[in-house]
Amino acid sequence: MSVGARQLGAGGPMVGPVGIGAMSFVGFYGATTEADSHAVLDAALDAGMVHVDTANVYGMGRSEEVIGAFLKARGAAARDRLVIATKAGISRDPDSGRRRYDNSAAHLEAELDASLARLGVEAVDLFYIHRREAERPIEEVTEALAGLVRKGKTRGIGFSEISPSSLRRAAAVHPVAAVQSEYSLSTRFPELGLVQTCAELGTALVAFSPVGRSLLTDLPMTRDRAAAIGFLKRNPRFMEPNLSANIAATAGFRALAAARGEPAAALAIAWVLSRGEHVIAIPGTRTPAHAAELFRGAELAGDAGLIAEIEATLPVGWAHGDRYSEDQWIGPERYC
């Protein structure tokens, strides 16, 4: 399989097979600085990995501000090369503080306008619904997104964590450039329809958490480190006894990587990219050194023998614990 540039949706821009998930720019998985994030973006551009994925809720706008500062410092050449995606649709109830979802046209346009201001750009390349508002017909939401394309505020539209059936409904209204979903050796449910539907419709499948939130790297989360991260301390896969079981289950995977002389993260990325020419991985990272390990995966994705060894080492269904807690499951569409 070719591991060169991939298209971000039919008619969309060509990007490297590995992008940067910019949630890491706001310290979600550990302390970082703006300079660190800019170094990662420089490394990505140098490697031809030009896609960066952010959202208005990452650090309550801070991730977008960091990217905006990078573009301001690096100038027009960087903006011409960087392919930027952002997301909206998640908000907080002003009284209870609880998360809620708003996919109304007015909310989406106001949030995109704020994102454009933070990024310092006139338009983004891709604008996603971060989470679908279940009560609002997806056809209505898609038409609202199409209106933002017509206004020149985004060049393409996408959805995060939706089902194949919802994708078909949306695509009947307007082409959907990308669907974002968690997809890795530890989370394989997209293979039950989403991978196939995206390929059929010419939609890119943008895989977030492709290294299993560290489980598929040489340094998986320790119990203490996971407990210090708000999202992970409530996530079933990072709670005991599941965490210890998952670290034990992936030991052979790390041994395979070591025997091959490769970083484990590179093997994880290679496997994701091998799933189809329309699949793009967006791991998060805080350092150029780790970014280089992730980008190495693009060079390994065409090694069919290696992919077969990976599959044999971590066959489908090995992970212990659900990928989300019940609270974390509020928003993503379950379809299998």
How would you describe this structure to a colleague?
The protein is globular. Helix content is 40%, strand content 13%. The strands form three sheets. It has an eight-stranded parallel sheet with strand order 3-4-5-8-9-10-11-12. Strands 1-2 form a two-stranded antiparallel ribbon. Helix 12 (264-273) crosses helix 13 (288-300). The chain has helices spanning 34-46, 62-74, 76-81, 105-119, 138-150, 164-171, 194-201, 223-227, 230-233, 242-249, 251-260, 264-273, 288-300, 304-313; strands at 6-7, 14-15, 20-21, 51-53, 83-88, 90-92, 99-101, 126-129, 157-160, 178-182, 204-208, 279-282. It contains 14 helices and twelve strands. The model has no long low-confidence stretch (mean pLDDT 95). The protein is α/β, with parallel strands linked by helices and 336 residues long. The chain has a single domain (6-213, 264-303), classed as Alpha-Beta Barrel (TIM Barrel).
